[in-house]
Amino acid sequence: MTPAVFSHGDLRLYLLSLLAEAPQHGYGIIQALTDRTGGTYTPSAGTIYPRLAKLEEEGLVSKSVDGRTTIYAITDAGRAELAEREGDLAGIESGLADSVRLIANEVRQSVQDAMKSLRADLASATHDDRSAAKSRPSSSTRTPEGRASSREQLHRADAIVNAFRARVRTDLRTHVARGGTLAESVVTELETALDAAAHAVTQTLGPSDR
Question: What is the Cα–Cα distance from 189 to 180, expressed in whole angstroms?
Answer without folding.
Answer: 18
